[in-house]
Amino acid sequence: MSRRPAKGDYIETDTGNKVARKAILVGTQNIMLGGKTVIQPEVMIRGDLVRTAPSSSSSSSSSTPSSSTAVAIGRYCFLSRAVLLRPPGRLYKGVYTYMPLRLGDHVFIGQNTVVQAATVGNHVSIGRDCCVNEFAIVKDYVRILDETVVPAFMVIPSFSVVAGRPARVVGEVPEGEVEEFELREIYKSVGNNPTGG
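and the corresponding structure tokens:
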């Protein structure tokens, strides 16, 4: 009888991603993780909502790996409990299709937040109970406060603090506070064998 290591709450990948066993990743072949990302329990990532390529013939469907990434997540991202990442979709030439959702590096997303943005930049902190609606673009070094609703197609400039329903810029991130966006320490504190920093 072989001894198997005890099952932890997280599965660790070769690139250092820590994925909770209770997370729901649908369409994993269409989800790209950059490495050192934490995905907590009850997170749902909809990789099955991928752009539908116009099919010239039904037999060539297996040979069209063109742009099949639905969700791309950068390095050192932290997805809190019950986050939903869903690619934005729209009607295009009579067909409902999805565009990729891209998260940059060092992105923190708080509990119960839904993100359907086109792009979230690097060093972004999104609070809890937020909704970042379809095709929004969040630039680098942005802080979105708790319970904020970002309207569809809104562009949030770099170094902005955003709040409200609907969201509006309420301040700016001071130059000295950019280190707060670093997520290396919080990454180390999660997992089966956390190493406190």
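(Above: one complete record from the training split.) DSSP finds one helix and 23 strands in the chain.
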